[in-house]
Specification:
With 97 residues, the protein is mainly alpha-helical. It has a domain of 39 residues. 55% of the residues lie in helices and 0% in strands. The chain has three helices and no strands. α2 runs antiparallel to α3. It starts with 10 loop residues before the first helix and ends in a 5-residue tail after the last helix.
Length: 97
């Protein structure tokens, strides 16, 4: 039985660059957006950043003072975004041969 030739790698893989798939692009986009929003919410929850309300329907006033709820939500979003950005390297390291 003749041995078949090994498959030729794609040009992107041959140069050592990973192939950009739609899942990877989406994961990076969501990870960056979630990280930036989480950072903003942490800063607002810690009362380090104050932003005036943009779209008000009634009498809107800026929120003053820190908010433990937004600080917690911001930390969770920030960690989730960082996980999305770093998870492929952490989880994919064991799969490589």
């Amino acid at each position: 039985m003749p041995r078949s030739a090994p498959p030729t790698p794609s040009p992107a893989r041959a140069e050592g660059r990973p192939v950009a798939t739609w899942r990877r692009v989406a994961r990076i986009g969501v990870g960056v957006a979630l990280t930036l929003l989480g950072l903003l919410w942490v800063l607002q929850g810690a009362d380090l950043v104050r932003i005036e309300p943009v779209g008000c329907v009634a009498e809107c006033e800026p929120v003053t003072g820190g908010s433990p709820a937004w600080l917690t939500i911001g930390v969770i979003a920030l960690l989730g975004g960082l996980f999305l950005l770093g998870a492929p390297r952490l989880l994919g390291a064991g799969r490589r041969r």
